[in-house]
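User: My collaborator sent over this chain with a note saying "see what the structure looks like." That's all I know about it. Can you take a look?
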Amino acid sequence: MPWDVPLPFALLTFLAWAIVARAVLVYTQILPPTCGSCGRKLERRYLGEPVCGCGR
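Assistant: Without extra context I'll predict from the sequence alone. Here is the result:
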């Protein structure tokens, strides 16, 4: 019994859920917030850890 769901709709739905899951994990402080342009962490958790230097 195949589902007749178009592939772009399925991918967009999966992407939306992934974004929501990431936002919830950042909000609960399980994952650290990251920079949108370089992808590095905005704050250090450990001494000497690389952080964002973009100036955002």
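A starting point for your reply to your collaborator: The first helix runs from residue 7 to 27.
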